[in-house]
Amino acid sequence: MRVGFIACGADLASDLADLKALIHVSSSEYCERTVDVILSEGHYQRHLNRLQTRLGEATRNATRLFESVDAEVFARTPQSLYVWAALPGVADSLAFAKELLPRKIVMAPGRIFSVDSTQVSRWSRFNVGAMADPRFAKALRAALRRRVSD
Length: 150
Description:
By secondary structure, this protein is of the alpha+beta class. The protein has six helices and four strands; from the N terminus they run H-H-H-E-E-H-E-E-H-H.
């Protein structure tokens, strides 16, 4: 839904509603009423609380996975969409990312975030949501084992 809203007192809301009625271009009253219910009945806050809980759990699980493979985690936070880590035995995270592509695992090597894209980086940014897929841990561990055995 694409609905704009202003959080304000009842008096100002009444004045703004009058103004909106005068200059109304196009907007869906259904969408506006839906957003009003979502916000006023606490649905959005409950949704945010559930998302924060899930994000915290995903961040903890990602950190545990990195600990289990002896990776270096850049910053440990209670919840984050991304975790930066340097994997053991991986000097060039771009080359490692290419190794994982055939297994349909996509990771973001640190090099792509640098002003100088030729700069080799051992760091990668990992999406904690994507890491929740068991295929990620399996592919990561297998790729790291291959590097040790080579």
